[in-house]
Amino acid sequence: MARNSCHLPACFPAAALFLLLLLLAGDHLRLSAAGHDYHDALRKSILFFEGQRSGRLPTDQRVRWRKNSALHDGASAGVDLTGGYYDAGDNIKFGFPMAFTTTLLSWSVIDFGRNMGGGELGNAVRAVKWGTDYLLKATAHDGVVYVQVGDPLSDHNCWERPEDMDTLRTAYRIDANHPGSDVAGETAAALAAASIVFRSRNPAYSRLLLDRAIKVFEFADRHRGAYSSSLNYAVCPFYCDVNGYQDELLWGAAWLHKATRRREYREYIVRNEVVLRAGDSINEFGWDNKHAGINVLLSKEVLMGRANDLKQFQINADAFICSLLPGISHTQVQYSPGGLIFKAGGSNMQHVTSLSFLLLAYSNYLSHANHAVTCGDTSASPALLKRLARRQVDYILGDNPLRISYMVGYGPHYPQRIHHRASSLPSVDAHPARIACKAGSRYYMSPNPNPNILVGAVVGGPNSSDAFPDSRPYFQESEPTTYINAPLVGLLAYFSAHP
Where is the Glycoside hydrolase family domain (predicted)? Predict the structure, then answer.
């Protein structure tokens, strides 16, 4: 993908700056400045993860309409793979997005945990641990990583509660003969990032996470390849690695460097910067593409004056910032008429929350270094980046043309018919009898609101024209995912402390 050259003066004319100011001011909308209860939204965004839990639920489970599910996962392979998260509205446990979710939850706690308050910080840490406990099980045997539980074709052929699930629970793995550097690299990143979260809270658990991260990264690097090639029939087209595995190796090394401070990981990054295409796709960040995240994460070292050999990553991060500013003529990042970041493909809110998280994180790094980003003849200050990130969060919470909150349970008007099996089917408490695979179809097609409110779930969101159908069959717009919420936790934490 061609690199964006937004550092050139001609790339940021005065008219573009005027459009940027209009978008941030909400010229066409009456924005509720400081009118959102960010702490309430934070609480709900973390609560959502309890609704996505798989396995045996703990006694302090707060989403009470969910019950135990998938208690025999891994049994067919002779391993224990219970626990973890369902990634979205289905009942599959996809390891690639689950690991990315865990990494971003950890990053949210690392950078913004101090803004959460004691209660929500504890809930966020528990959300991280629910993910890492599972990832430890998935990596318990050297040279093997279990990357998925459940057959997606049979699962997607049913509309049933996870508590009733009777579809195939095949356990899929990568190993030396069937490599998956992408999912293994992301898993290493998740374990390393989480080790920082638990360093002072639970030192023994932190050491376990870090030791495992090192082993998994070595496996990912030694046996290079994309898991889509090894497991195409199981992971595609659901979480097929389109972007390649190279970015996950750099991403894993970057988090191991942050967690260990070992020079070997820094040298690995510098040595492989060109080979692993560190400068590609600078304005992409999500479960499949880590480039913008790598650049922002490593830039902190450069801005603090500790790593001039990583200077290129800061140059890339600055270019990333310039590529997001509204009004620049390019094809990678667009804005809806209502001011929402929009990128082609499904589940657009994943781009909104991930890119906004990077805007906020980078603005903090810039602030501490007393630095601004130069985009042509314009200086993008840390305050400007924060305003742009806040604008995206406010859009999600209701400052948009439809006046709808895209977070379920927040505000008076939010999606009622989300594409989510457990939410849309009667709970076990309300309907104790089993609901078979096809018997759930009438609930899927029903125009009625979902009976169970999945509080905190942020759906895929509106289209490029700010229109939203609020209909289960429109899954790209109405399905929530864990990787939408994970970066939003950090954003809401910061804005709850800086309204």
Answer: 38-492
Residue 135 CA to residue 147 CA, distance in Å, equals 9
The long-range contacts involving 233-236, CB below 8 angstroms and separated by at least 24 positions, are: 234/148, 234/151, 234/152, 234/170, 234/172, 235/94, 235/96, 235/147, 235/148, 235/152, 235/172
- In this structure, what token pair is assigned to residue 200? 């002072």
Q: For 116, which DSSP code?
A: S
- Residue positions counted in the chain: 499
Strand, helix or coil for residue 183: helix
Sign of CA pseudo-dihedral 269, 277, 93, 120: positive
Question: Alpha-carbon distance 100 to 414, whole Å?
Answer: 26
Dihedrals phi, psi of 129, to nearest 5 degrees: -65, -35
Render each residue's pLDDT in the chain as its tens digit; 499 residues: 333 333 333 333 433 443 454 455 443 343 444 489 999 999 999 999 999 999 999 999 999 999 999 999 999 999 999 999 999 999 999 999 999 999 999 999 999 999 998 899 999 999 999 999 999 999 999 999 999 999 999 999 999 999 999 999 999 999 999 999 999 999 999 999 999 999 999 999 999 999 999 999 999 999 999 999 989 989 999 999 888 899 999 999 999 999 999 999 999 999 988 766 755 667 889 999 999 999 999 999 999 888 889 999 999 999 999 999 886 545 468 999 999 999 988 899 999 999 999 999 999 999 999 999 998 888 899 999 999 999 999 999 999 999 999 999 999 999 999 999 999 999 999 999 999 999 999 999 999 999 999 999 999 999 999 999 999 999 999 999 999 999 999 999 999 999 8
d(CA 348, CA 384): 23
Residue 417 contacts residue 408 (beta carbons within 8 Å): no
Q: Which residue has the tokens 């356990």?
A: 171
Rounded to an integer, what distance in angstroms lies between the CA atom of residue 158 and that of residue 150? Answer: 13
Domains and CATH numbers, the chain: 9-26+34-497 (1.50.10.10)
Are 321 and 373 a contacting pair, CB within 8 Å? yes
- Say how many Å lie between the first and final Cα of the chain, rounded: 38
What's the angle, vertex CA 43, arms to CA 38 and CA 47, rounded to 5? 145
Residues annotated as part of the active site: 419, 470, 479
- Separation in Å, CA 205 to CA 18, 77, 82, 101, 334: 51, 26, 19, 19, 42
